[in-house]
């Protein structure tokens, strides 16, 4: 992976990283990487050691990642939203030589390991110290393609994130897939073409964030970060100020930006591509995006993938999305996808085999206390079992739900995603979450939390009648919660069904 810096060497004069008023060119980043790598080396970081990044998006995060790889270290992308026990568990499993952390997250590191913490503000001083030449560094250590390069933690919502190991081969193979799919192989990039400006509104510690970072590096493009947590108004401000051309988001983030009252007065003409992933994308949302971002009408895209597969598995854009609005797209060039144990409708578990997939978990999944264990998801034939439900039709993948997110009502399996998709077709419905509530007779009953469009006057009986046209009797919600306020979401952008389920009994009482 460190050799990717050499491939980006031709872009030295271009601006690469922006956050607020800060701007770093490729040349400035390369020099900063060498300075920070020298400091990390002086602090004891060596090839094969673990460097844990535990900080929000910033140029220092990016530079520290490259500095660790420059020294041959394995860089672990810690989740910036972890609680103290999960940070302690990660430190216990990884045994990092160094931990990059801001003040807030440094306090979560166990006291016995705090001497390993390097503060973000200290790295900022090294980055800004442009008058000091770094000590000479040896070339990056040689690495076999299956040697670990990065560790990315799955964004678990139940307290059990898993440290996914991606080898150098995994990262490079996924990058090749994306570049071939988009027609942007480095040798095909016109050096005279103005650089794209990408807004990274999601966290860098997710696989999608790493993908965005690497694509911007090789393409000679500018990557813009928000300051602080996700905020729809700031997204709109940044798009206007920096003339953003590409924006990647999860559907909930996109929806919240579209709902901001200032949208009608904004100049969003610079945006030519909007890419969504992380959750199923509804056709109605795509149409709303096309209206608000008119110059991105042909540049809408959706991707499907997961951390354990090394990133993107399938993608759809342009004509494909217009003709098949509910598809996740076609598998990427060297990705094998099949459906395991399909039912009569062709739905079954999506299983994947790709050179980009993980080599396994580092020490097993964490349980929040430092305990590690649990089987890998890769079967003896090399297939990754995603836990997602879907079907393949004419070479296109359709994701229809989660195998593990099923509601089991009286012995009948119900995919919440299917019920949600039906309800989202109603013009009065802006967002919906379907979940199972305990039932003393049936085991679980179907419940729907519906966020209505402002001013909508639809009733529960009307929604029930609408759903009855497309849902089997056992799939229809037995309980409703109609509301106008947005549904709660995790910082990853996915609906927080755990909170909704916990709040439901209190609401009923």
TrEMBL record:
Residues 491-509 have a biased composition (Basic and acidic residues). Signal peptide: none annotated. It comes from Pseudonocardia eucalypti. This is Class I adenylate-forming enzyme family protein. Residues 6-362 form the AMP-dependent synthetase/ligase domain. SUPFAM superfamilies: Acetyl-CoA synthetase-like (SSF56801). Residues 487-509 are annotated as: Disordered. The lineage of its organism: Bacteria, Bacillati, Actinomycetota, Actinomycetes, Pseudonocardiales. Residues 419-494 form the AMP-binding enzyme C-terminal domain. InterPro entries: AMP-bd_C, AMP-bd_C_sf, AMP-binding_CS, AMP-dep_synth/lig_dom, ANL_N_sf.
């Amino acid at each position: 992976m460190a050799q990717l810096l050499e491939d980006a060497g031709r872009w030295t004069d271009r601006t690469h990283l922006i956050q607020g008023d800060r701007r770093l060119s490729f040349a400035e980043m390369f020099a900063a990487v060498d300075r920070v790598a020298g400091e990390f080396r002086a602090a004891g970081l060596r090839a094969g050691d673990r460097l844990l990044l535990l900080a929000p998006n910033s140029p220092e995060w990016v530079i520290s990642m490259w500095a660790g790889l420059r020294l041959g270290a394995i860089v672990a992308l810690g989740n910036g939203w972890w609680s103290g026990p999960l940070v302690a568990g990660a430190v216990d499993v990884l045994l990092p030589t160094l931990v990059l952390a801001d003040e807030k997250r440094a306090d979560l590191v166990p006291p016995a390991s705090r001497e390993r913490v390097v503060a973000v503000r200290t790295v900022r001083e090294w980055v800004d110290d442009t008058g000091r030449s770094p000590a000479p560094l040896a070339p990056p250590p040689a690495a076999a393609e299956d040697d670990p390069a990065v560790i990315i933690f799955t964004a678990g919502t139940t307290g059990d994130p898993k440290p996914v190991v991606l080898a150098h081969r995994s990262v490079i193979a996924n990058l090749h897939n994306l570049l071939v799919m988009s027609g942007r192989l480095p040798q095909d990039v016109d050096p005279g073409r103005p650089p794209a400006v990408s807004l990274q509104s999601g966290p860098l510690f997710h696989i999608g964030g790493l993908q965005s970072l690497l694509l911007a590096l090789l393409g000679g493009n500018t990557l813009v970060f928000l300051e602080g947590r996700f905020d729809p108004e700031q997204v709109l401000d940044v798009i206007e100020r920096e003339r953003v051309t590409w924006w990647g988001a999860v559907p909930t983030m996109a929806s919240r930006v579209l709902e901001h009252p200032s949208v009608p007065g904004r100049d969003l003409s610079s945006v030519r591509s909007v890419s969504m992933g992380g959750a199923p994308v509804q056709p109605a949302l795509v149409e709303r995006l096309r209206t608000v971002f008119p110059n991105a009408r042909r540049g809408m895209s959706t991707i499907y993938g997961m951390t354990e597969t090394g990133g993107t598995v399938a993608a759809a854009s342009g004509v494909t999305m217009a003709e098949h609005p509910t598809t996740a797209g076609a598998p990427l060039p060297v990705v094998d996808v099949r459906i395991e144990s399909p039912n009569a409708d062709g739905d079954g578990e999506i299983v994947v085999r790709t050179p980009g997939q993980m080599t396994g978990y580092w020490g097993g999944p964490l349980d929040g206390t430092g305990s590690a264990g649990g089987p890998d998801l890769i079967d003896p034939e090399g297939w990754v079992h995603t836990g997602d439900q879907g079907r393949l039709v004419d070479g296109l993948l359709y994701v229809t739900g989660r195998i593990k997110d099923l509601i089991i009502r009286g012995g009948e399996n119900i995919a919440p995603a299917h019920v949600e998709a039906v309800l989202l077709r109603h013009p009065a419905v802006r967002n919906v979450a379907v979940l199972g509530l305990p039932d003393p007779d049936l085991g679980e009953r179907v419940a729907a939390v519906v966020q209505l469009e402002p001013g909508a006057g639809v009733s529960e009986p009307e929604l029930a009648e609408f759903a009855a046209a497309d849902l089997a009797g056992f799939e229809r919600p037995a309980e409703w919660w109609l509301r106008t306020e947005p549904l709660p979401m995790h910082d990853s952008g996915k609906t927080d069904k755990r909170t909704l389920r916990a709040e439901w009994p209190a609401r009923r009482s």
